[in-house]
Design goal:
By secondary structure, the protein is mainly α. It has two domains: about 1-35 and about 185-315, P-loop containing nucleotide triphosphate hydrolases (Rossmann fold, 3-Layer(aba) Sandwich), CATH 3.40.50; about 45-180, no CATH class. It is about 40% helix and about 10% strand. It has helices spanning about 55-65, 75-95, 105-110, 125-135, 140-150, 155-170, 175-180, 210-230, 255-260, 275-285, 290-295, 305-315; strands at about 5, 25, 30-35, 195-200, 240-245, 270. It has a two-stranded antiparallel sheet with strand order 1-2. Helix 9 (about 255-260) links the parallel strand 5 (about 240-245) and strand 6. The longest helix has 21 residues, at about 210-230. The protein starts with 5 loop residues before the first strand and ends in a 13-residue tail after the last helix.
Length: about 325
């Protein structure tokens, strides 16, 4: 099917024919993000899809939701502090760095250069000096505002924040991962322009790189919704269907409960595949019911998880089935 492509449709949604009456087929573009074997993967750079300050925050939110730092469990102080630092550094990279340096490798270099001396509060590391220079030129720069808030932390606290950032991004010490995120080949924002098959391949035993998959889905949904609204008047010319197998293993897609309620009007659909509904609740907590409620169809292939069985039984309710006498049940 990928070699032959899909029928080219006319404005009424019917297959187009050539002069001999044969259906005209349009080949698919193939895109692959392979987190099992990076050598067989195309390049994916999340920084390539940053166009505004809100995009920076969305990227940081997805990163933090799907990776682990060193902060104390249940204490969101560290999460908020890391968010400030990530927003500052990524903001600087996006607005000030050359295009070829706008990637995770540069972010890692910045964090590695941020030495903190607990006994010398006046010490300035290279990144401090870099932001001082930017502030002198652009006082209200987004990155400067975020960095000044981060710098309110005392020396010991700032050091702990950096340790947590280092732990969260430790996976980028792997050279292959830095290479696969160096630049972008997926062109996520064009999936609704022409027929494309995007394969997101992840390990079913190792979740070290699954945050890339959740990041990809998050950016994909946001990019396509914005393009549908800004370019195509509300609906993409090519329907984008997301078959999200092993949905519970890709991590968390922020605001998924809102996305599934709004993407359908933009010619985007999502099919979530789970082993049990409890998996969805473990990740999305109270929002899991909202996500399920926005799915127009549920297909149950069997299972023994009690919560799933109970909810399906309640949804089906009781009814009388009438069949002709002698027919097998």
């Amino acid at each position: 099917m990928l070699q032959r492509g899909a029928p080219r449709l006319d404005k009424d949604g019917k297959p187009m024919k050539d002069k001999n009456g044969k259906t005209i087929y349009e080949p698919y573009r193939i895109k692959v993000l392979n987190t099992i074997n990076f050598k067989k993967s195309m390049k994916y750079n999340p920084f390539a899809y940053i166009h505004s300050e809100k995009d920076i925050l969305k990227l940081v939110t997805t990163l933090i939701a799907n990776t682990k730092g060193e902060g104390k469990a249940g204490d969101d102080f560290w999460v908020k502090a890391e968010t400030l630092l990530y927003c500052a550094l990524i903001g600087y990279i996006h607005y000030e760095a050359p295009v070829e340096e706008q990637n995770f490798s540069t972010l890692i270099e910045f964090i590695n250069a941020m030495e903190v001396r607990e006994d010398d509060e006046e010490y300035k590391n290279p990144v401090d000096l870099m932001f001082d220079a930017l502030e002198s030129e652009k006082l209200n720069h987004f990155a400067v505002r975020q960095y000044k808030k981060y710098k309110l932390a005392a020396g010991k606290t700032a050091k702990s924040i950096l340790i947590s950032c280092g732990a969260r991004l430790a996976v980028f010490d792997i050279a292959e991962l830095r290479e696969v995120t160096a630049y972008d080949e997926l062109e996520l924002d064009t999936l609704g322009d022409k027929k494309t098959a995007l394969f997101l391949i992840m390990s079913d035993t190792d979740d070290s790189f699954n945050f890339l998959i959740s990041m990809c889905y998050t950016q994909l949904f946001n990019l396509l919704c914005e393009k549908a609204d800004d370019v195509y008047g509300g609906r993409l010319p090519v329907h984008v269907r997301c078959l999200i197998d092993e949905c519970a293993n890709i991590g968390q897609i922020p605001k998924l409960e809102k996305l599934v309620a709004t993407i359908r009007s933009r010619e985007i659909s999502a099919c979530l595949v789970l082993q049990a509904q409890s998996q969805l609740k473990a990740i999305y907590k109270d929002n899991a019911d909202t996500i399920i409620g926005n799915m127009d169809t549920s297909i149950f292939l069997g299972g023994k998880e009690p919560t799933t069985l109970k909810e399906l039984a309640a949804a089906l309710g009781k009814e009388t089935i009438v069949r002709p006498l002698g027919c097998m049940p």
